[in-house]
Each structure stands twice: as structure tokens, then as C-alpha cells.
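Milestone M4 deliverable, item 7.
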Amino acid sequence: MIALKNCKAVTISDGIIDNATILIEDGILKAVEVKAEIPKDAKVIDLKGMWVTPGFIDAHSHLAMGEPGAKGGGDDDNEATDPVTAHVRMIDSLDPWSLGVTEARKGGFTVMCSLPGSANVIGGTGIAVKLKDANSVLEQVIPGTEVMKMALGENPKGYYGSQKRMPMTRMGTGAVLRETLFNAQQYAEELAAAEAEGKPFKHNFKLDPLVPVVRGEMRCRIHCHRADDILTAVRISEEFGLDFVVEHCTEGFKVADILAQKNVKCVVGPLRMIPGKMEVWNCTIENPAMMEKAGCEIALSADAQSATRWLPEEVGLAMAYGLSEEMAFKSLTINPAKILGLDHRMGTLEAGKDADLSIGNGNPFHNLSRCKATMIDGKFEFNELGK
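Output delivered:
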């Protein structure tokens, strides 16, 4: 057993506990209490007032597939050869030895969801990974966290419009998405009928991955920056009964009341984009605070690879522009955990959850604070506590 004593525990579920003791056994949190009784055989680490939070989670990343640290380098997150590539899987691009993994741990991150890029209308399946040192990506991926990436706006119409292929417009993008989902619905019905009757069925490799999507069994992650694209994502998702999350949500502040009313899950970020394309011209660091004020529950993202390490600094900037401290902590812990369907295992400091922790020498959103250690499944994967 490991005992972390004399720490400021940011539980998320039950406020902040000063002078807390955290007990860890077999990779699981056993207690988070003031002066919890420490077993005699425990390894005791005195944190001397350091802050302990649940391990940070970035629900939208492109980790370990295109940064310079990936073997071979290059862009491995966009199969930009067809507007619909539902059959590609991010697990086939993930590099467990990537520079991005070790860098993210230095920022207190323990889990990321690595997604295909946004070149295609339907880009393929992403998956969540634990950022632990591993000999295989199979040791890092978290089964059951598969999601389908989709995209609206300038990226797909830019990639294919420049080739004089559909989609060339936002209308075309919507049409491609609707047609594909319609075909997937029919395919799913035919598959179900064949299975019920015990008849042979000729499988379609590109439509098979969309069967759980149109059945509402696999969550969709829909890239959209502009307010009209955000509402298109909502509209099409409601038409087909999709379980969906809006990604980036750069102009979310314009439609925040609608998003809150419909309880739309939102991953917001990156927060400091330059005006590299028209749909992000209205990017503002005030967006998270305005969405929170409207009643939206948000997760914040760096939309990055190794640069995710610096996401807590961006969260601090969002706090300077009105985001509450409570939502700041939730945006990197329990809210992304809910989006990934992992809130039963992580996102709060509670007995029974995975011992995934970020340990720092101050409030993690203050730029004078440093992450000093990151623990995953009860094991230190980054540790500067002795320095």
C-alpha cells in the first residue's frame, strides 16, 4: 500500500480536503480522508502540502500519431483519400513510445482520447488510452472507449473541394453525412433481419463500423467551429438518433443557450488559435466562461499532441476571463471522463476509482505551479518529488 499524506486533495466530488491522506492499493484508491489511518506496512510519502487532483484527461487529442516523436513522423491521423473512411482505426496509428506520451505525463495527464483528424466527413474510430509506459499499444488502450469521428465546416470541403470532389460546400458535407448515415441505417436493419432469421449476410467493410453508430451504441465526436456548423451537428444527430459530442465549439458562445437547453456535450478548444482559417476568426478565450454561464457542462482540450502538456496553462487563462475554478477542475477531470464513458473509474478522488493522480506544488492552473509527479494505476509514471 502507498500512503500520500499531508496533501491538498482536490476531490472534484467532495470539494478540497486540506491535510488529506490518500491510500492506494493495487492501483486503486482506498481512501481520501483527513488523517486516514495508515497501515504499518504502507510506503508513506509526505507531500508537504502539495496539491493532488485526479489525473487530467484530454478528451480530444491527436496523440502519438503525427508529432515529431512518432516513428517515421508525418501525419498519421488523416486518411484523406475519401470523404468517408469509417473503417479506419486510430489504434493502427498509435505509437506507445511517442514523445507525446511522456510530455503529456509531465503536465499531469493520465488519459487521452486519440482521434482521427478532421479532413473527412467521417474519419474513423478513435479510442482512449492510459498514458503509461508500455511495450504495446494494447497495454495502453482502454477497451470500450471507441468513438466515431466526424467533421463539418472548412476542413472536409477544403480537402475535397480543391479536388473538385464532393463535398465542395457545407451543403455537400451535410449531404454526404446524411446519405452515409441513411445507408448505414438500412444496412443495420438488413443485418439485424438476417441475424434474426439465421441467414447468411454479405458484410460491407465500410458500413459495418457505422452499425453501432446508427443504433446509438457508439458515440460520435463531431468537429465543428462555426455556430451554424454546431447547429448542423445537433440537427443531423437528432435526425438519426445519434449519441454525439460537439468538438471544438469555437463559436459555442453564440448558441450556448441552445446547447445548454439540449444538454449537448461539448469539448471546447484549443483556446488560443490564430485566425488561420475563417471559421476560427471568432475564437475567444472568453468562450468557456460564456458557455458555463449559459449552463453548459464543458471539457477543455488542447487539440494537440505533445503540446497537451501546457493545457492547464490555457485553462488558467480561461479562468482569468471568467471561467470558475470549479468548472476549470471539472473540465479536465470528471467532464471528459463522462464524455469517454469512464466516470465510474476516474475523474474524481474517491475510494474505488483508479489511482490516476496529478501531484503539483500549487494550483495546477497557475503558471507559477509545476506538476511534480503523475501516477497511473498506482504507479509513478513521472516523478520529480525528490527534486
